[in-house]
Amino acid sequence: MTVLEDLVARVRASRGFTHKRDIAAVMGQLAPTSGFTTVPNGDDCAVLPDPSGTGHLLLAIEGLVQDFVEAMPWFAGYSAVMVNLSDVAAMGGRAMAVVDALWAHGEPHACEVLAGMRAAAERYGVPLVGGHTNLQSNSGQLAVAVLGKAQRLISSFAALPGDRLLVAVDLRGQWQAPYPFWNASTEAPAERLRGDMELLPTMAEAGWCDAGKDISMAGVLGSALMLLECSGVGAEIDLDRLPRPDAIGGPGEDSESFLRWLCAFPSFGYVLSVRPEHAREVTACFESRGIVCADVGAVGEGSCLTVGHAGATALLWDHAQTPFITHREAA
Predict the structure, then answer these.
(1) Which CATH architecture has domain 3-21+155-330?
(2) Does the pLDDT at position 194 exceed 80?
(3) Fold of 44-150
(4) How high is the pLDDT of residue 54?
(5) Of 215, 217, 230, 211, whose CA–CA distance to 319 is shortest?
């Protein structure tokens, strides 16, 4: 087995890939009960009509894995807010308010989680407006929802053949051991965090980008795959061109650290499918704020996500043959 084939096999078997595939099993039951939403399930947020007639309301929700909430309650609370804000930004929106549902085994554990949530809400400038709390649980569990608004949408369903696939990641961070979280948030200036969250809605409103997804627990490749599957397209990604921290070698140099990076959940990271004429503007927008953005490949016809390294290629996934997050009956 080659280095590339081994890497592909291990990405497929990663925890993030496994968790995301759970979505396909329940997607059929999550179909909207009315025509109220304006995009299909599978995007980073639900999209609702804005009663004012100006733009779209966005509703995002994230549940945190139980072992994370138990082991790192403050950072779990912080992350629960942060990842929802990222989902809203990924769809071209600005967050308006945060609510939570928390189960904890006693007040001390609950207070740590809530302190992390409050820290994130204050640093990103989004109000924490209420929620549900239970202190009688045998284990810590947390879900957080955020309401946002977008003037123009960025969607997982808008990638087109011929687009350039751009990956933008804030590399000014460090691992949040032992989990695969790249934390470029908790020690960053609040003003910078708020300014960075303005990038995606600004690009959407300028008409530079209408297709993309934030990099979630499925890592950069899994997130790209979800984007491609929703849009019904394929792509080839050059692994050697992916943004990565200086300490992490390429696929053929240090496969363990590179695999960890492929599976990383960054505090600020996006995969964008951009029309070629706007790729330079989008890249420059990120770079103006010190965020690395690289053109890693092209979107094409078909259903295959292929990855390349040093002139070799390997198939990571064919979403037509094996649905990743879509409901099988509809695939």
Answers:
(1) Alpha-Beta Complex (3.90)
(2) yes
(3) 60s Ribosomal Protein L30; Chain: A; (3.30.1330)
(4) 85
(5) 230
